[in-house]
Automatic annotation (TrEMBL):
<dbReference type="InterPro" id="IPR044855">
    <property type="entry name" value="CoA-Trfase_III_dom3_sf"/>
</dbReference>
<dbReference type="InterPro" id="IPR050483">
    <property type="entry name" value="CoA-transferase_III_domain"/>
</dbReference>
<dbReference type="InterPro" id="IPR023606">
    <property type="entry name" value="CoA-Trfase_III_dom_1_sf"/>
</dbReference>
<keyword id="KW-0808">Transferase</keyword>
<dbReference type="InterPro" id="IPR003673">
    <property type="entry name" value="CoA-Trfase_fam_III"/>
</dbReference>
<protein>
    <submittedName>
        <fullName>CoA transferase</fullName>
        <ecNumber>2.8.3.-</ecNumber>
    </submittedName>
</protein>
<dbReference type="Pfam" id="PF02515">
    <property type="entry name" value="CoA_transf_3"/>
</dbReference>
<dbReference type="GO" id="GO:0016740">
    <property type="term" value="F:transferase activity"/>
</dbReference>
Length: 800
């Protein structure tokens, strides 16, 4: 058995986490990844988030994780002959700025493409290769501010500065997108320039379709920062996470805590608003209960729950131990996550040692490298002809299938009238309004280009039609809890009996086995359990939940897994079961916490808006009233190196406090962070956000306004790249919709070619293809098996 990407050669010209994680995922799939480094090596070799001393030639622990199984070749910037030979022989190159090699004009992605037409070039940059911001300074932290991710969907507290999501999560998500879209382009023949914007990846990973929401409903999702209730709470013996993603879960939490009087099924308040009314009483109750007792009770009520993970404790959690979610690094012995997905019958490459700097230079210098065969024409719709049965709901699953739909697949979104997709029900539209279920901006943002069929699986007729749909599909994707699929009799063996070569993608929250197998899992619970919440917020209180990244991160990892499975099917004719658990994907993008603790004994901690990458790094209040009439405007500033510090000092006019000699080094600036914060805060407080950005950014300082998420369309760079497309919906009206975080050299004219479907809109088309005539369809509708309106009280049967 060979891995799906065996024979696929990738030259890695990236530096940092995003490119490193992208090429790690490709290497795990079997690609030969040749990491080409300048003589001093990738800057990530010397990195440790805790400041531990590392052997830069061997590479520190995070480098060892990301570079496992790759080869290292050193290229002299003055002699690029070997690198040119490697590019000639490669199928793809992954490129990012940040090294002496990628600063060479001839190694710009555009120039590489000119010399090597047909080579797939994946470029990972903060803003994209071209446009008004393409050469502007940025860090992962300032990108969060520009994206609206620093505000999320109301994370934090109104009386404090907004809090970014910790752990450099934007870099990891960008890497995951880069890998998935490199595989997507490969499926369409390759030979494209994939121009990935890390800003756009953060918009998709850290915000929840805020522009579409604002334009459809005329108001933002949330106007104030407030902690999730209950969210991460203090129990009698530690931290516990509880979540309420639906009205039923809130009502169950009321009953669980002994407060049935809080239940108000007629309230016009949102679930979040109702929970906030009773926050203090709820937290007081939790403080007197033990974590295990709370979790047992919550599980009995089917309320999402988990312990709160961090780099120290997550590796010992019973569920992750039983599932084998961590393994020893084969070179350095520390603990690291296993693969973010599992494919039955498909070989993924196991952990392998990372190379020492230049370890393979002599080998490749002496090798005869044959030119790669690149005779395919790239398809702007690489998934054209692929039929996908989309049995997913809410965010994680639909975000995976949405990328397939935007890139050409026929995606049939399956719902039922008793249980429509959950995002239809969080439209923010009263049910007294006409067609309220068709006016959800979240559903619209996630489901353009898809077709919709309704089937009630509780009926034999519905189950029969479902089995026939499966037999007619190439791929089935579902994200129910495992018990639901078991009850339907649709495990993989049963599905494969209907179509032997089918690829089935299952996206449970915590996996198909283990003690937490059947626990409900929304994004925030996944974030809590895996450590993503741990680094978010301030040290004097419980963590804030990112409340975002857990879902889209799961979706993009599931897409990579699906594409590996399809490549395996192409080579062997065999179907594949893909298990893409949300938690497994989250553990990988939170890997640095476990790695730092296991390798160096350092437990990374949240520290407000400070972080290990830059010093100073913080969010400072600017002068000005925001759109809600509040004194609440902010800017993010991050100084990642000495050159940026000197740029800041110059832009500020060289004040005495800033020219202290100790501040000339990162160590000195970190030691003096409090003083620097005080001075920068005072300077920013008398200037507007625009004035601060206009002063600092042209000077080369990474700076950003902390954007309200629904204002993303105001960013000139996004407009230049056409990141938003206007979509007209027959019930919800026209609104801007986000696309993909890449511009493709041979891409579709539009990503959104059809609006999100109406409930049951394509029943006749799709079921007719299965042989159902008009009379049979009418009978099914009369019996409530299919339909076009929600039957929230249960299936509507025909009267006798």
């Amino acid at each position: 058995m060979t891995a799906p990407l065996t024979g696929y050669t990738v030259v890695d010209l990236s530096s940092g986490i995003a490119g490193g994680y992208c090429t790690k995922l490709l290497a795990d799939g079997g690609a030969d990844v040749i990491k080409v480094e300048p003589p001093e090596g990738d800057r990530l070799r010397a990195w440790s988030a805790s400041g531990a001393e590392v052997d830069a030639a061997a590479g520190g622990a995070l480098f060892s994780f990301l570079a496992g199984g790759k080869h290292s070749v050193v290229a002299d910037p003055a002699d690029l002959d070997l690198l040119e030979r490697l590019l000639t022989a490669a199928d793809a190159v992954v490129w990012s700025p940040g090294s002496r090699l990628t600063e060479i004009a001839g190694l710009h992605p555009d120039r590489i493409r000119e010399r090597h037409p047909g080579l797939t070039v994946t470029a990972i940059t903060p803003f994209g290769l071209h446009g008004p911001w393409s050469d502007r300074a940025a860090t992962e932290f300032t990108l969060q501010a520009w994206s609206g991710g620093a505000l999320g969907i109301g994370r934090g507290e109104q009386h404090r500065a907004p809090a970014h999501v910790g752990g450099q999560v934007g870099d990891w998500v960008a890497g995951a997108y880069a890998a998935a879209l490199t595989l997507a382009v490969r499926a369409g023949g390759g030979g494209q320039l994939i121009d990935l914007s890390m800003l756009e990846a953060q918009i998709l990973g850290l915000t929840y379709y805020p522009v579409t929401y604002f334009e459809m409903l005329g108001r933002p999702w949330r106007t104030e920062r407030r902690p999730t209730v209950p969210g991460v709470a203090e129990a009698a013996d530690g931290l516990v996470a509880l979540g309420c993603g639906t009205a039923q879960q809130w009502w169950d939490l009321c009953a669980m805590s002994g407060h049935e009087e809080w239940i108000d099924e007629t309230s016009e308040l949102t679930i979040t608003e109702q929970a906030n009314l009773h926050a203090e009483e709820l937290f007081e109750w939790l403080r007197h209960e033990k974590v295990d007792d709370i979790r047992d009770l919550a599980s009995a009520f089917r309320i999402p729950n988990s312990p709160v993970g961090n780099g120290e404790n997550v590796t010992a959690m019973d569920h992750f131990v039983e599932r084998g979610n961590f393994t020893r690094n084969p070179r350095d012995g520390f603990l690291q996550p296993t693969h973010p997905y599992r494919l039955s019958g498909v070989e993924l490459c196991g952990p392998a040692p990372a190379p020492r700097l230049g370890e393979h230079t002599e080998h490749y210098a002496a090798a005869e490298l044959a030119a790669a065969v690149r005779d395919q024409q790239p398809n702007p719709l690489p998934f054209q002809g692929l039929r996908v049965l989309d049995m997913t709901t809410f965010w994680a699953g639909p975000s995976c299938t949405h990328i397939l739909a935007m890139l050409g697949a026929e995606v049939i979104h399956l719902e039922s009238t008793p249980r429509p997709d959950g995002t239809r029900l969080i439209a923010g539209i009263p049910i007294s309004e006409p067609l309220w279920w068709e006016r959800s901006p979240i559903f619209s943002g996630l489901n353009t280009n898809k077709k919709c069929v309704t089937l009630d699986f509780q009926t034999e007729a519905g189950r029969d039609l479902l089995r026939r749909l499966i037999a007619d599909s190439d791929v089935v994707v579902e994200n129910f809890t495992p018990r639901v699929i078991d009850q339907l009799g649709l495990d993989y063996d049963s599905v494969r009996a209907l179509r032997e070569d089918i690829v089935m993608v299952r996206m449970p929250g915590f996996g198909l086995d283990g003690p937490w197998r059947d626990n409900p899992a929304f994004a925030y619970i996944i974030e809590d359990a895996t450590g993503l919440s741990w680094l978010t917020g301030y040290p004097d209180r419980t963590p804030y939940e990112p409340y975002s990244v857990g879902d889209p991160n799961a979706g993009v990892h599931a897409l990579s897994a699906l594409l590996l499975a399809l490549e395996h099917r192409r080579r062997t004719g065999q179907g594949v079961l893909v298990e893409a658990a949300m938690a497994d994907a989250a553990l990988n993008v939170a890997a640095e916490q476990v790695i730092e603790y296991s390798a160096y004994g350092a437990l990374l901690q949240r520290d407000g808006n400070r972080g290990p990458v830059a010093a100073p790094q913080n969010i400072y209040q600017a002068h000005g009233i925001d759109e809600f009439g509040r004194d609440d405007t902010w800017v993010a500033i991050a100084i990642a190196d000495d050159e940026q510090w000197q740029a800041l000092v110059t832009a500020l006019g060289g004040p005495a406090w800033a020219v202290r000699p100790e501040f000339a080094t990162a160590v000195g600036r970190r030691a003096g962070h409090d003083l620097i914060d005080t001075e920068l805060a005072a300077w920013c407080r008398t200037r507007s956000g625009d004035e601060i950005v206009e002063t600092l950014w042209p000077a080369g300082v990474p700076v950003a306004k902390v954007m309200q998420p629904h204002r993303q369309t105001e960013l000139a760079q996004l407009e230049h790249r056409g990141f938003f497309e206007r979509v007209a919906h027959p019930a919800a009206g026209a609104a801007a919709h986000s696309t993909l975080p890449v511009r493709l050299s041979v891409g579709p004219d539009r990503y959104h070619r059809a609006p999100a479907p109406l409930l049951g809109q394509h029943n006749r088309e799709i079921l007719g293809r299965l042989g159902m005539d008009d009379a049979q369809l009418a009978a099914l509708e009369a019996d409530g098996v299919i339909g076009t309106e929600p039957a929230m009280g249960g299936r509507k049967k025909a009267s006798k």
